[in-house]
Amino acid sequence: MKIKITTKELKSDFAKEVKERSGIDVKKCYQCGKCTAGCPVAYEMDYMPNQIIRFVQLGLRHEALTSRTIWLCASCITCSTRCPKEVKIAELMDVLREMALEEGVANPKEKNITTFHKAFLNSVKKHGRISEFWMLSEYKRKRPKTALQDIEIGPQLMLKGKLSLTPHDIKGKKSIKRIFEKFK
Amino acid sequence: MSKKIGVFVCHCGTNISATVDVEKVAEEAKKNNPGVSYTTTYKYMCSDPGQKLLRDKIKEEGLDGVVVAACSPKMHEHTFRNASKKAGMNPYHVEISNLREQCSWVHPDKPTGTEKSIDLVRMMTEKTRKDKSLNPIKVPVTKRALVIGGGIAGIQAALDIADAGHEVVMVEREASIGGHMAQLSETFPTLDCSQCIMTPKMVELAQNENIKLYTWSEIEAVDGYLGNFDVKIRKKARSVDLDLCTGCSSCWQVCPSKKIKSEFDMKLGNRTAIYIPFPQAIPSKPVIDREHCLLFKDARKKNIPPNDSKVCRKCLDVCPIAPVKAIDYSQEDEIITEKIGAIVVATGYKELDDTSMYGEYGGGKYQDVITGLQFERLASASGPTEGEIQRPSDGKVPEIIVFIQCVGSRDPAKGCSYCSKTCCMYTAKHTMLYKHKVHDGHAYVFYIDIRCAGKDYEEFWLRAVEEEGATYLRGRVSRIYKKGDKLVVLGADTLTGSVVEIEADMVVLASAMKAQDDAEKFAQKLSIQYNKDKFFSEIHPKLKPVESSSAGIFLAGTCQGPKDIPETVAQAGAAASKVLALLSADELEREPVVAKVDRLPAPIFSTCIGCFYCKRVCPYGAIAEEDIKARDGSVIKTVARVNEGLCQGCGLCAATCRSKSVELAGFNDEQVYAEINSVEFS
Amino acid sequence: MTEETKKTKIGYYPGCAITKCSTSEEYGTSVLGVSRVIGPELVEIGDWNCCGASSAHATNHKLSTALSVRNISLAEKDGYDEVLAPCPMCSQRLIISQNDVHEDKKLREEVEDAIEMPVSSNVKVSNYLEIIKNYSMDEIAEKRKKKPEGLKVASYYGCLLLRPPKILKFDDPENPTTMDEIVAAIGAEAVDWEFKTNCCGGGFTLSRPNVVVKLTHDILEGAADAGANVIAVACPMCHANLDMRQKNIEKEYGRRFNIPIVYISELIGLALGLKPKDLGMDKHFIDTDFVVDAFSNIEE
C-alpha cells in the first residue's frame, strides 16, 4: 500500500458527497477497528473496512472506489451492529459500490461479483422476479472461467425440480420496467 | 430619590469595543438617561487601575449609584461591588450591564451592537435608580463537617479536616471503610501495595478523636443550609453491638453459610453470612447479612420476629461476650440526627460489572471473561487465590491473557461516551502484575488510544511494553467466543491493517467507572446537580472544581467523575480546605439577594393566601409554612416563610406567587418594571 | 390466544427463492403446509415482484428501495396489516426500504412516482420466526403429534433476520433465542453454540464460492463441536450455502460433517405429523432421513 496524501485529497469533498448521498457521517468514526475485527470477509480484502472509512475521511476517492473491499463486503452488517459510534459501515459500502459503478472504476478483479449483480438485476428487469436458470446462464456466459465451477450442482438442482426453465413472469412487468427506467 | 449615577463603560480590550462604540454608549447615557451625572470608558474596568477609577469617581463625584457596562455579572459583579464598598457605598447600588456575552460577542456589526448597548445601559440605569441598600445576611456556623463515603477520598478529606481541629462525622454505607482502594492489589505508577498504604490511613481515621464514624449507615435526609445542616443518618441494623463486640472472629468461623459470593472479592471468593468484608476492615467487627442468614430466612418465612427463630443461632451461642452478648438479632434500623456546618460528598464510583450489553463479549456468560476489579482481587495477596493468577472456571493459571480496554467507556452505542481515564494505566499495571507472577505468560492488550498523561505515567505504560513484554494491538475487539476451554478473541490491529485472532485462557475487560446506581436519587436528596452520566457536577470545571451547586456541599473523588488515586487525594484535600475555610468563621455572610414573604399589621398579617405554590417550585427547599397565631395560641392563618439561609435568590417563588406576596430583594417588581419600561420598542 | 387473532389473515410474500420450482422451494412448501395446520392463514399478495436482494441494494439504493416498497404498497392495497416474508433477505430489504422512505421525504416522493402508488408505513413486515412466536406457539403445543428423539438442533440465525437491529427490532442481535424457543416447543433439544449469528457468505454462493466455503466450514464446525446433529435455519441462502457446500468443505478442510440442514418450518411440520415429502424433506443435498426418522414416535 503506497499512498501519498496531499492537500489535494485532504481538501476534497469526498466525505461530504458521501454524506449527502447516504446520510453517513464518516467524521464520527474514531478508527477503533471494531468493524475490521468482526468482519467475516476481511481476510480476503485488499483494505480493511476501517481503512475504507479512513479513505473517505481523508478524501482518498480513488483508493476507496477502486478497492476490492467494497465488493467483497457481504452486507452481513456485523460492523454497523457493533460499531461503538453507530457509523453505518455496511451501508457505506453500498454507497461506495454505487459510486464506483457510476464512475466506471469498479475493480476488475471482482468482476465475478459485479457481473453476478448485473445478471441478477437483468432477470428482475425482464421478468419482475428471478428466473434462476436464466440468471445463472447469463452469469456463466459472461464469466466463462466460472463455467466449470459447481458443474455438478446445476443438474442436481434440476433433478430435484428446483431449477425451472420457465421464467416466473409477473403481470405488472411494465411497472417494473418503469422502476428500472426511473432509477438507472 | 434623585440619585447621582455614574456609568462606566468597559472596552474589555477589544472584546466589547470591536463591536460596540463604547464612547457613544457613554455619551448617550449622559445625554439621555435621567440621573446619570458622570460617564466614562476604560480599557479594562476589572483591572486594578479600573477599580481605582471606580472608587475615585464615587468619592469625587459623590455618586450613590453605579452602572458598570462590561461583561457578565457572573464574572465581575462581585469585583465592582467590592470596589464600591471600599469607596463607602452600599454595594447593592452597583448594577452590571452585560455588553459582552449578551451583546458584543453575539452581534457581528457595530451599529447594532452600539444601539443595543445603549438600551442595555439605560435599562440598568433605571434599575439602579430604584436600588435599595441591602446588607449581608449573617448566619451562624456549626463547626462540624460531614463526610459521606469512606473510600480514599472521604478518608483523606476527613483526616484533613479533623487534623485541623474540627469534628467530622463520617458515614459509610458498607460495613467497613476502605472503598475500592482497599480492593486494589498494587497501584500505578509505583506498584506499591494498595493495602499497605491504605490500611494505616484507615486506622488513623478510626483512632482520630475528632472523627465519629458511622459504618453500615446511609444518609436519610439533609435539611438546613450552609453552616447549619440537619443530617438524618440511617444506622442500618448490623445485628452486632459495636460497643460490645471485640471482633474475636468466633462467630464468622462457626457460621454455616459459607458460600455467599463476596462483594469485596467481586464475587470471585466466598464469605459467610455473619462476616467482616476483608481482614483489615475498620471497624473490625462483623455484620449479619440478613438476606442470606439462615435464622433471618427462617424468620421471614414464618413471619416471626428474628429472635424467636430457633434456626442455627450458632453465632450467638459462640459469642464469648458476657453477660450481654454482642450479637443482637432484634436490632432495628436507627435514625440519628447530626448538626453539620459543611458536607463533603465522596460517594465514589461503581465498576461496570454488568456487561450484559456486551453480547458480543458473551454478555457476562463466560466465567473467564472478568472485569478489571476482579483481576485486582485475583492479583491481591488477600484475594480469593492469595495472589495467584488463576482463572475462575477451573483454577488453571492462564498462559495467555487478553486485556480489552474501553469496555463501557468511549462507547456511545452502549450509552457511555466518556473516557474512564484510569483504564489505560491499570491495564498496563495488570499486564505487569501478571508477568511478575506468571513469567512465561503472554499479555495482549487491545486498545484504541493510550491516554497516560499523568506524572511518570507515559514511562509506566512504556515499561509494560519495553521491559515487561506486553504486546499492544491497536483495535477494539469485535467478539469473544468459547472454543473448548479457550476463549477466541477476534480483534484488529489497525496499524498493520489486520484481523487478529487470539485463543486466550482468560480475558480481562477494562470496565468503565460508572456513577453509583443510586447517584441520581442521592443527588436529589442533597439538591446537587449531576451530569448526563450521573456524576455530580462542580460549579465551574476550572475555577470551582470541588464546589457543588449547593452552598456548603463539596465534592471529592470519583463521584464527580472518573479519576485515579493521586487526583482523588488531591481533590479530597481541596474539598477539605474549602470546608476548613467555612468552619474558620463564627458567622457566615450570605448574599442578601433572597426572597421575602410580606408581613403586614393585623388584621391582614400577610397577603399570602397560603397556596404554597412557591413551596412546590422552590428548588432549594427554602420555603416553610408558618402559623400566624393569635394571643391565645390559636392559628389565624398559615402563610409561607422563606428561610434566608437556604434561599439562593433564584426568584421562582416571586414569579409563581399569585397574590404578589413574595419579593426578591434586589429584583423587586418596581425595579424590573422600570428596566422593561425603559426599553424603547420601535 | 383469542378467536380474533386466530382468524388473522396475513399477506404472504414468498419472494423468488422459495416459490415452486425454485432452489429453496421446500421452505415455501413447508411454511404453507404448517400454516394450514396451525395458522395463521397466509394469502399470497397479488403480483408481487422480486425485492432486488443484495444485487439491488449493493449497486443501486433507489432501485432497491422502489422494488421492495412496491410489494408493501401492494399488500396494503390488498388490505393486509401484516406481511410475512419467510426469506430474511426479502424481509430485511422490505423493512429497511420501508424505513428509508419513512426517514427521507425526497426518496419517498421519488419512489412513489416510480411505483405509481403511495408508499405505506402501516403494513408490518414480519419474518417467519416472528410469525410463529407471535401466533403459533400455543398451537404447536396443542397440535404436536410426534416427539423427536435424539435431535440436537443448532439454531442458526445468520445475518439478515437480526441486522441491522435498530431497524429490524427482532430478538437480541448477539444472542437470539426465538428459534431456540421454537425448537424447544416442538420437543427437540436446542444446543448452546457460538455461531448463531455468524455470516455464511450470503450472496457469494456463485461469485465467491471460496468465501462461502470458509465461512460455512466455521459454522458447521461450531455446530458439530457443540454436539449438534442438525442445523435449523430460516433463510434460503443460509440453507443453500450450508447444504450444498459440505462436499467442497470436505475437499478443502478434510472434515466430513454430513449435517442435515433443515428449515425450522420443516421441523415444525414433522412435529405436527405432516408427511416428509409434503415438507420437501427429499429436496435437500444432505440426506435428511435421520431427521425424519427422529420423528417416528407418536406422542402420548
Automatic annotation (TrEMBL), chain A:
It comes from the Bacteria. PANTHER family: IRON-SULFUR-BINDING OXIDOREDUCTASE FADF-RELATED (PTHR43255:SF1), IRON-SULFUR-BINDING OXIDOREDUCTASE FADF-RELATED-RELATED (PTHR43255). PROSITE patterns: 4FE4S_FER_1, 4FE4S_FER_2. Pfam families: Fer4_8. Residues 20-48 form the 4Fe-4S ferredoxin-type domain. This is Electron transport complex subunit RsxC. Keywords: 4Fe-4S, Iron, Iron-sulfur, Metal-binding, Oxidoreductase. The gene is rsxC. GO terms for molecular function: 4 iron, 4 sulfur cluster binding; metal ion binding; oxidoreductase activity. GO terms for cellular component: plasma membrane.
Automatic annotation (TrEMBL), chain B:
Keywords: 4Fe-4S, FAD, Flavoprotein, Iron, Iron-sulfur, Metal-binding, Oxidoreductase. It comes from the Bacteria. One of its GO terms (molecular function) is metal ion binding. Its cofactor is FAD. It comes from Candidatus Scalindua brodae. InterPro entries: 4Fe4S_Fe-S-bd, 4Fe4S_Fe_S_CS, FAD/NAD-bd_sf, HdrA-like. Belongs to the HdrA family. Residues 236-265, 599-628, 638-667 form the 4Fe-4S ferredoxin-type domain. Its EC number is 1.6.99.5. Signal peptide: none annotated. It holds the Pfam family Fer4. This is NAD(P)H-quinone oxidoreductase subunit I, chloroplastic.
From TrEMBL, chain C:
InterPro entries: Cys_rich_dom (IPR004017), HdrB/HdrD_reductase (IPR051278). Residues 11-92, 153-243 form the Cysteine-rich domain. The keyword Oxidoreductase applies. Gene3D superfamilies: 1.20.1050.140, 3.40.50.11810. GO terms for molecular function: oxidoreductase activity. Keywords: Oxidoreductase. This is Putative iron sulfur protein. It comes from Candidatus Scalindua brodae.
